[in-house]
Write a structure and sequence with these properties.
heterotrimer, A alpha+beta (about 400), B alpha+beta (about 325), C alpha+beta (about 250), A: about 400 residues, alpha+beta, Ribosomal Protein S5, domain 2, 2 domains, 6-stranded mixed β-sheet, 4-stranded antiparallel β-sheet, 14 helices, about 25% strand, elongated, disordered N terminus, C: about 250 residues, 5-stranded mixed β-sheet, globular, cytoplasm (chain A), Ribosomal_Su5_D2-typ_SF (chain A), nucleus (chain A), RNA-binding (chain A), Ribosomal RNA-processing protein 43 (chain A)
Chain lengths: ~400, ~325, ~250
């Protein structure tokens, strides 16, 4: 930092000018504003201090499946923000669910319907983007009520100064964990059917006869009605997915990177074939990779975040203090910029944030569906801006889909 | 009991999956074999400056063992044969000590080592356990001897290590009680020392020398004719050895030929080394660990050189 | 349909307080505001030219968890945009808002927090008014659900929330800005536009009202917009606080 100043001294007389890096620290707001609104005479385009155009996202790369002890893992780098996500699957026995037998009885009719559909293998509707209501409800019930998805995000990795390692999760980390969980639930990304471990009590076949008798003795409480030629399948256990995101490096916009890593890790996740073993009375898994199956996720939601930079931080403040502030006029000449994928420096200079999560139907060919849209912290973004942000997010979707599919 | 600041799993708890193949008595021939020479080290990938918000940072990765690489390129089993260390280290500081802290004429070093929940074969908790605290203390001792602390009075330096993938303590196929010690932690410590030294150099903190970590172990051949005959192995992957008698990790400064941290585990007194080596067990171990540290030093110095060249290029 | 019930300044020891009860959803929120106060523990977070806003949400049946952490950050951001933290006496000080959820359906793990967000926002706004914290504007906010049949329902009951295709919370300032939008579910932009339109008419009325707006409150809730409701609550409060002065005139 000292070298350029020293070399500049002989050329220019000593003045009050500062090297850019110091100007950026002392007057961050003016520094970013000077970049975004260059003098009209200079004919320069409006770019951000980091060299990006306002609507430009950072260079993103992704890599999946490199962590040994996970069922699925991914590393996503968005600029200098890096998120590592590992998915670990563990088993939840229905015996360990306190309310299982009760909830089974109360929701008996939906389960019956479900079983009928199941006997013919995987329901065909799942290949489409149409969702049957009954299945939907049950998905929600199982995944949400039984806590089958457990995402946690950690910032205590030394990712940025200010997050003490070892301290309980900061409010930002808690808020991000909740947003990931909430988005996993509302986007219904993971199908409950992938997480169920079924047990088909054996039929009265010749070779099974002996075992079946033994079976009957054990399954007395299953009810006498269950003893038929083809007994209905029953759920013996669920897979619980522990989705842990470590933000290794934080330089603004952790949510986009964290969500992309979760999505990539879930796409990479393989669950071993599991069955109820009658002899050991437990769930056993096969370690054969060829028998393991991947999760079939619903859709491909991609998050894009934005922030609003206001030319004069106090201008908006004054505008509202003076009641008759003429807002359309204020917006006539450009004084606010919506910046895509803000870095840490830009986040520090803006109050208003927007986050969109969009998906496209039928693998990118169909229309854009918004899964989540939020904005708060200011009053600049309204309908027209949001419409624009939706189309920007849709473009980002294409880009991210390509990156995540190649990893 | 329930941690309200995290997203919790099912209240009844969950069980890790039990593999059918794990129930049958496992075949010892399935154990991954060491493909390296006794004195051959695993390759180390070490890169500095990947985390710009920190004053110094490093990422370290061990080369996967032959068996792991084979399972990766051509996956057959859901159970990984062994694992390879992966960790990140960040250095924040020197920064002013908090107001509440007592006056210190020296740089106050804080080390923090945490496993990611998915780092090991068993899921790790979110709160640091005793072994993680232990690692932090060992790391602090190793680094304190190298840093010239009196140049930063009233300042603090935070070193944070996140382990993304840890070394195994033993082969997964062995019954859980077959090994008395957790050998994997020693490899982890050696990696922590090397990475932290690179990150400290990346943060431009004055040090006497770079500190490199190295591990050596005396292993017993399963088929050996008489018990107690051991072989000295450098950079042991615990999954590859049926019986480790004793292991040692050092933090070593090559330029000064000094050891800042020494950790010996196991009983090496009765071990008789093969091939005419007449050294005492522990002497041989320490020499071996220093040799291993010299090996990682060569990688470390390259990484630091790269960090400085980068800094010069940007200045 | 009955409008929400509010009462201001119920707590003696807080600088300002308000309780807000929504009869439709059953949510009952008690908010307390202390401002301006010193925040010695947050020295490094204090900005020299602005006030620091802290929000704490306490669920009725347990301690605060991750979901509360999220809703606190949303509230902090929305209230931060309307509190005039640069007024005299506020810079470097804190505005501490504590919201206790004392009635209504508990928000379970991973549930959407949107259902209770309007009640929390209204309670904190009224508590800020009661504490005489300078605000640049007031706001009104509402929850809308889009049912599978495409209908837009205001303040949906619990079962409608569970079946809704998408949920939206929108807040409009008294000057017509969109202050907050939180939408989740599956929807397209056209749906959101009609949601926004309906929310705007609930909050502010279909077309900006003149001076007659104030009288509409005693009629059906459709005629009385939420904006008017907030305004009336403020007027009542001022009448009570300045009764000595009004009476002496």
């Amino acid at each position: 930092m000292a070298t350029p100043t020293a070399s500049a001294v002989p050329a220019a007389p000593p003045s009050l000018s500062l090297p850019p890096s110091q100007f950026a620290r002392l007057q961050p707001h003016a520094y970013l504003l000077a970049h975004l609104s260059p003098p009209p005479a200079s004919n320069q385009p409006s770019i951000r201090a980091n060299g990006r155009a306002p609507a430009q996202f950072r260079v993103t790369s992704a890599n999946s499946g490199s962590l040994t002890h996970t069922n699925g893992s991914a590393v996503v780098r968005v600029g200098d923000t890096t998120a590592v996500c590992g998915v670990r699957a563990e088993i939840l026995h229905t015996d360990d669910i306190a309310s299982w037998s009760v909830s089974q009885a109360s929701s008996g009719n939906t389960h019956k319907r479900r079983r009928l559909g199941d006997l013919g293998g995987k329901p065909t509707e799942e290949s489409d983007d149409t969702y049957a209501d009954a299945q939907d409800d049950e998905d929600r019930a199982h995944i949400q009520d039984l806590n089958l998805l457990v995402p946690n995000l950690s910032l205590s990795t030394g990712c940025a100064p200010g997050f003490t390692p070892g301290a309980p999760p900061s409010s930002l980390a808690q808020s991000l964990s909740h947003q990931i969980l909430s988005l996993l639930h509302t986007s219904r990304l993971v199908r409950a059917d992938d997480l169920r471990i079924w047990y088909q009590p054996p039929n009265l076949g010749r070779e099974d006869l002996e075992r079946h008798n033994e079976d009957e003795a054990m399954d007395v409480d299953a009810g006498p009605g269950a003893a038929g030629l083809s007994k209905p399948r029953e759920i013996k256990a669920f897979w619980v997915l522990y989705i842990d995101v470590m933000i290794i490096s934080l330089a603004g916009n952790p949510f986009d990177a964290a969500w992309a890593s979760v999505l990539a890790a879930l796409r990479d996740t393989k669950l071993p074939k599991a069955w109820w073993d009658i002899d050991n009375e437990t769930i056993l898994c096969s370690d054969d990779v060829s028998q393991a199956r991947k999760l079939s996720l619903r859709g491909f939601p991609i998050a894009s975040s934005f922030c609003v930079f206001d030319a004069d931080a106090a201008a908006a403040y004054r505008a509202v203090v003076i009641p008759k502030a003429d807002e359309p006029k204020r917006r006539g000449f450009k004084q606010t910029w919506i910046l895509a994928d803000p870095d840490g420096y830009e986040e520090g200079l803006s109050q208003e944030r927007a986050c969109l999560v969009v998906d496209k139907e039928s693998n990118g060919q169909g229309k854009t569906v918004i899964v989540k849209m939020e904005k708060h912290g200011g009053w600049i973004i309204d309908t027209e801006d949001l419409r624009q942000l939706v189309s920007m997010s849709a473009q980002r979707w294409d880009e991210m889909k390509q990156i995540l599919e190649q990893c | 009991m329930n941690d309200r600041r995290r997203v919790n799993g099912p209240p009844g708890g969950t069980r890790p999956p039990v593999f059918q193949s794990g129930l049958q008595s496992s075949n010892p021939s399935d154990r991954p074999r060491r493909q390296r020479q006794p004195a051959e080290l695993r390759k180390i990938f070490l890169k500095t400056g990947l985390i710009p918000s920190a004053s110094g940072s490093a990422y370290l990765e061990f080369e996967p063992s032959a068996s792991l690489a084979a399972n990766r390129s051509n996956p057959k089993s859901m159970i990984p044969p062994s694992s390879a260390l992966k960790l990140t280290c960040t250095v924040h500081g020197p920064k002013p000590l908090p107001r509440s802290a007592a006056y210190s004429p020296n740089l106050v070093l804080t080390t923090h080592v945490k496993y990611a929940p998915f780092a090991a074969r068993r899921r790790k908790g979110h709160v640091r356990d005793s072994s993680e605290r232990d690692l932090g203390v060992h790391l602090e001792t190793a680094l304190r001897g190298a840093i010239i602390a009196e140049r930063w009075p009233k300042s603090g330096l935070d070193i944070t290590i996140t382990i993304l993938e840890a070394e195994d303590d033993r082969w997964w196929g062995e019954p859980p009680d077959s090994h008395d010690a957790s050998w994997g932690i020693m490899n982890v410590l050696a990696g922590c020392i090397t990475a932290a030294s690179a990150a400290i150099a990346d943060a431009r903190i004055d040090c006497l020398d770079l500190v490199a970590g190295g591990v050596a172990a005396i292993t017993e051949d399963v088929g050996a004719s008489h018990s107690g005959s051991g072989r000295l192995m450098l950079d042991t992957d615990p999954a590859e050895h049926a019986s480790i008698l004793s292991a040692c990790v050092v933090a070593y400064m090559p330029a000064r030929d000094e050891i800042t941290e020494l950790w010996l585990k196991g009983d090496s007194s009765k071990a008789v080394l093969d091939d005419g080596d007449s050294r005492q067990g522990h002497d041989a171990l320490i020499d071996g660990a220093v040799d291993a540290a010299r090996g990682s030093y060569s990688v470390l110095s390259e990484a630091v050189k790269e960090s400085i060249l980068n800094a010069v290029a940007h200045a | 349909m009955v409008g929400p019930t509010v009462s201001l300044s119920g707590l003696r020891r807080a600088d300002g307080s308000a309780s807000y009860k929504c009869p439709v959803t059953g949510y009952d929120v008690l908010g307390a505001v202390n401002a301006p106060v010193e925040l010695p523990a947050r020295k490094d977070a204090l900005r020299p030219e602005d006030a620091t806003i802290e929000v704490f949400v306490k669920p009725g049946n347990t301690t605060a968890g991750v979901g509360e952490g999220y809703v606190e950050s949303v509230l902090r951001s929305v209230l931060g945009s309307i509190v005039l933290g640069r007024e005299k006496g506020f810079p470097r000080r804190g505005v501490v808002i504590t919201l206790a959820i004392i009635g209504g359906e508990a928000v379970e793990r991973g549930d959407s927090y949107l259902t209770i967000l309007p009640a929390l926002l209204h309670a904190s706004l009224l508590a800020l008014i009661s504490a005489a914290v300078p605000l640049s504007m007031t706001f009104a906010t509402t929850l809308l659900a889009v049912t599978p049949s495409g209908q837009i329902v205001q303040d949906p009951p619990v079962e409608d929330v569970a079946n809704a295709v998408s949920l939206h919370v929108l807040a409009f300032s008294s000057k017509g800005h969109l202050l907050l939008n939180e939408s989740q579910g599956r929807f397209d932009f056209e749906t959101w536009e009609s949601v926004r339109e309906q929310a705007a008419s609930i909050c502010q009325g279909a077309n900006p009202r003149g001076s007659d707006g104030d009288t509409a409150m005693d009629d059906e809730s459709k005629d009385g917009t939420l904006d008017n409701f907030i305004r009336e609550a403020m007027e009542d409060h001022l009448h009570r606080v300045y009764s000595w002065k009004i009476e002496s005139n």
